[in-house]
Write a structure and sequence with these properties.
3 helices
């Protein structure tokens, strides 16, 4: 394990777990890196452990360059042991030949104004009005956990209808709408 060539990778630290003998660091792609606290058979901290513990919050969310060795573990898989932690290095570009792409002709954007559907401002205003009345009803509630939401919504709709009605100049009819004094907000049954 000591004479292996070091692999190098820039990672973003997403999780750090103290496991007693060292720490396990997880990166965004799901790989786990082991950082031993002490050098083998000594009481001297490893360079990697000194580097990671010097970072605020063990470097959570930071991008760092890990130089590590990969060894077979007892469960039949492989473990990565970090030897050096440094600032990120520039990624080495892949030297494989670039794939050949067929260039699509670019379409010129249509700058002519598009016919759009106009918003129904009356419906939008009615919805905002209903929302305002619902807020007021909620404010009056004694126990928000026992609200009868359906009754409250119906009450808010009645108030919104009343507030948003259009009065016809020739035929003013208010009989289909309740008079404000007749509506009892406190009378809403809260279950």
């Amino acid at each position: 394990m000591n004479n292996q060539e070091l692999e190098q990778k820039n990672i973003i630290i997403s999780a750090v777990e103290d496991v007693g003998w060292g720490i396990k660091i997880k990166c965004g792609e799901g790989s786990t890196y082991n950082v031993p606290k002490l050098k083998k058979n000594t009481q001297t901290e490893t360079a990697a452990f000194q580097a990671i513990k010097s970072l605020q919050g063990y470097g959570m969310g930071m991008k760092k360059c890990f130089k590590f060795v990969t060894v077979d573990n007892s469960q039949g898989g492989q473990s990565k042991y970090v030897r050096i932690i440094s600032d990120p290095v520039q990624e080495i570009p892949d030297m494989s030949p670039e794939p050949q792409y067929v260039e699509k002709p670019q379409e010129t954007p249509n700058l002519a104004p598009q016919a759009t559907q106009k918003p129904d401002w009356e419906k939008i205003s009615w919805g905002k009005c209903k929302y305002g009345f619902l807020l007021e009803i909620f404010k009056k509630a004694d126990n928000p956990n026992t609200l009868n939401l359906e009754a409250m919504e119906q009450e808010a709709e009645v108030w919104a209808d009343m507030a948003m009605r259009k009065l016809d100049k020739q035929n003013v009819q208010t009989s289909e709408y309740p008079v404000a004094e007749d509506i009892n907000i406190e009378g809403i049954p809260f279950n």
